[in-house]
Write a structure and sequence with these properties.
By secondary structure, the protein is of the alpha/beta class. It has one domain (6-142). It is 23% helix and 32% strand. It is built from 4 helices and 9 strands. Strand 7 and strand 8 form a beta hairpin. The chain starts with 5 loop residues before the first helix and ends in a 12-residue tail after the last strand.
Length: 154
Amino acid sequence: MGGGNTVNLLAIWRAHGVDQALRAAWEGGVILAGGSAGSLCWFEGGTTDSFDLHQLAALSDGLGFLPGSHCPHYDGEVQRRPFYHRLVGEGFPAGYAVDDDAALRFVGRDLAEVVSARAGATAYRVENQGNQVLETPLEARQLGTPVRLDPPAS
């Protein structure tokens, strides 16, 4: 899925049963992907400008395939980081914030890795612990970097 208006995307999918078809496909092992609205939709909720292009809002009714919340454009839009921190600090579900040019790869509902198309782009785990919002950077593998699946021969 590409970007766009998450609220409209979800409403149209739900009106036509696309959400159920996507869930069946996902549960059957089909790979689902997307950026911006196309990544936010898979989570329980997150940050969106779908209601008003000039003001961020919380979205609490994502598809819920992935647990918690999601904040795209973490380094690309100056208001995203403080808004997401405020939401999580106020009790919004913990989740993942993702810089532009980075992506999360899940296997089932578990985060498998963070990948990046440019140096410095990554993702973060954002959660509220003891009334303090903690932002933990996650190591990203830059795309184009070989993946070693087997240990080197000795």
